[in-house]
Write a structure and sequence with these properties.
The complex is a heterodimer.
Chain A: H1 6-10, H2 13-17, E1 20-24, E2 30-31, E3 47-51, E4 55-64, E5 77-84, E6 89-95, E7 107-117, E8 124-132
Parallel strand pairs in A: 6-8
Antiparallel strand pairs in A: 1-2, 1-3, 4-5, 4-7, 5-6, 7-8
Chain B: E1 8-15, H1 26-41, E2 50-54, H2 58-62, H3 67-74, E3 81-84, H4 90-103, E4 109-116, H5 123-130, H6 146-161, H7 165-179, H8 193-198, E5 201-203, E6 206-207, E7 217-225, H9 226-229, E8 237-246, H10 261-274, E9 283-285, H11 291-300, H12 309-314, H13 331-335, H14 339-355, E10 368-375, E11 380-387
Parallel strand pairs in B: 2-3, 2-4, 9-10
Antiparallel strand pairs in B: 1-7, 1-8, 4-7, 5-6, 8-11, 10-11
Helix pairs in contact in B: 4-14, 7-11
The structure holds zinc ion (ZN).
Zinc ion binds near residues 26, 29, 40, 41 and 45 of chain A.
């Protein structure tokens, strides 16, 4: 599968391990994941890297019971859209909490975790998941 | 698009049964639908100038790419044949490309089709493949699924507007009811709200019976210039409005989680071009890949105010016999969702309704119909308006 590629994973490390996105100096908009051009300013936009604080609030959530390949052993797991305190909205898993603590408006913070494995021999993918504080 | 010069007519429709076709492959299905459309249009194959084939993922699902040439090969023709891909909106976009090719003056008669063969794969492989319609790199990596994305929208809609799971379940019940009158539908059994609510949870708050199934199937239409339509048929149906719009691939980057802006933009463009408003529409096929998607379509297409979709559905307005019947075919939920075929099947259903050939599920006196086809979690929407 496409996700077994080593360079594919390697080029995403800094965005998956840290909350490294970017920021348009022209219109003051934050992006995570980082964008190649600012969709608002386009050629007039000036983008610079920006690391966001690992704190946010749940905007909406779901509990996944039927997972895709690579995640089937983790089910059920919670996913949420998280509005970062000083950044944009991102999507991630919520861990370390009973599902009834996963609520709209709950405050969350990031933890470093295994995301999934590519079978027995494959690469183990790491990245950020979030816990309720 | 300037259609002041002439309009485009639908002169033929063709469908396969939707469901699990263990004995048929992609090419068998595509040809069956195409032959049915050619037969219905009473044209000779050699009169077709070009073909556009909607398909999302044949490479991942069957190993076969290059579908344009495949279909041309199977019918022994050397005409231009092009595959069109926009995830679950591939069929709707194939229709639009065919329409534009006629409006451009390049072609007179065009076959537009859609096909998908999904049941050769396991469910988790299909789930993974369908995530290619979303932002694979950022949403798929986190273990998001398609039901999961729509569940995120459903949860927020419930939170903001008091929409209940029962409202969503009513959509599924209604679509099964409609499908029970459609001989090509995958599920022709009736279900209850209670069954939907107690069905296996897939992505909370959506259960298995809130989700469209994995299906095989194909559909095709024959389009031609308005001025030659009467040569083939006494009851052509005209395409009078077409709109298409795009939005962010990733749900997290949308302006709102409770509406699809692409649907709003595409429908407003189609209404404007057709010179009609929601109140003029008699029958509509919408993209109910999940029940919440139909509820949002009720609102985003302008049939109910934002947040009032649940109430509108509860009042029975979207049932056959109601103010504006939604998904008389059974929708994606009960008629089935062979992804690339869906947008074309929607058009076939609306044409049947406007011709008065929809049998037990006929909307009496239907004169204006609409189709609404969505790709991904709302990154593409395409809307067409049809008139007798
Ligand atoms: Zn900018």
């Amino acid at each position: 599968m496409h996700r077994t590629s080593v360079p594919l994973l390697w080029r995403r490390f800094k965005h998956h391990y840290r909350l490294l996105g970017n920021h348009c100096k022209t219109c003051k908009t934050d992006y995570y994941p980082p964008r190649e051009i600012c969709p608002t300013c386009r050629r007039k936009g000036v983008l610079e890297e920006k690391e966001f604080e690992k704190k946010g609030t749940i905007q909406t959530y779901s509990i996944i019971y039927a997972g895709p390949v690579g995640f089937d052993k983790q089910t059920p797991y919670a996913v949420a859209l998280i509005k970062l305190d000083n950044g944009p909205v991102l999507v991630s898993q919520i861990v370390d909490a009973p599902f009834d603590q996963v609520k709209i408006g709950a405050k969350v913070t990031a933890v470093f975790r295994k995301i999934y494995e590519d079978g027995k021999e494959g690469i183990i993918h790491y990245g950020l998941k979030w816990k309720v504080v | 698009m300037d259609n002041s010069k002439f309009r485009v007519a639908v002169i033929g429709i063709g469908l396969t049964k939707f469901g699990e076709h263990w004995e048929k492959g992609l090419r068998n299905l595509a040809i069956e639908a195409g032959v049915n459309a050619v037969t219905d249009a009473k044209i000779e194959g050699k009169e077709i100038d070009a073909m556009y084939i909607g398909n999302m993922a044949s490479g991942r699902l069957t190993g076969q790419e290059h579908l344009g040439a495949l279909v041309a090969d199977q019918i022994g023709m050397n005409i231009p044949a092009t595959r069109v891909e926009a995830a679950c909106a591939s069929g709707g976009l194939a229709l639009r490309q065919g329409l534009l090719s006629i409006l451009s003056g390049q072609h007179n008669v065009v076959l537009v089709g859609g096909a998908e063969k999904m049941t050769d794969m396991s469910v988790d492989q299909v789930t993974t493949t369908l995530m290619g319609a979303a932002d694979e790199e950022w949403e798929g990596f986190q273990g998001l699924t398609f039901p999961g994305l729509y569940a995120l929208m459903a949860r927020r809609h419930m939170h903001d507007y008091g929409t209940r799971r029962e409202h969503l379940a009513m959509i599924s019940v209604k679509n099964h009811e409609h499908a029970s009158m459609n001989p090509i539908a995958q599920f022709q059994n009736k279900i209850t709200v209670d069954q939907v609510l107690k069905s296996t949870m897939v992505a909370d708050p959506l259960t298995l019976l809130d989700c469209s199934p994995v299906s095989d199937g194909a559909a095709a239409l024959i389009l031609c210039r308005e001025d030659i339509a009467k040569k083939y048929t006494d009851n052509p149906v005209y395409i009078v409005g077409s709109g298409q719009a795009s939005d962010t691939l990733a749900l997290a980057q949308r302006k709102s989680l409770t509406r699809l802006d692409a649907t709003i933009m595409a429908s407003r463009a189609a209404y404007k071009q057709a010179g009609v408003a929601p109140k003029d529409i008699n029958v509509v096929e919408v993209h109910d890949c999940f029940t919440i998607a139909e509820l949002m379509a009720v609102e985003d297409l302008g049939f109910a105010e934002k947040g009032k979709g649940g109430k509108f559905i509860e009042e029975g307005n979207t049932k056959l016999g109601g103010k504006i019947p939604f998904n008389t075919s059974g929708g994606l939920k009960a008629c089935g969702h062979p992804v690339g075929a869906t947008g074309i099947k929607q058009a076939c259903e609306v044409v049947m309704q406007l011709r008065g050939e929809a049998g037990a599920r006929q909307v009496k006196g239907a004169e204006i119909g609409m189709t609404h086809n969505v790709g991904g979690s709302g990154a593409t929407a395409v809307v067409h308006v049809f008139k007798k």
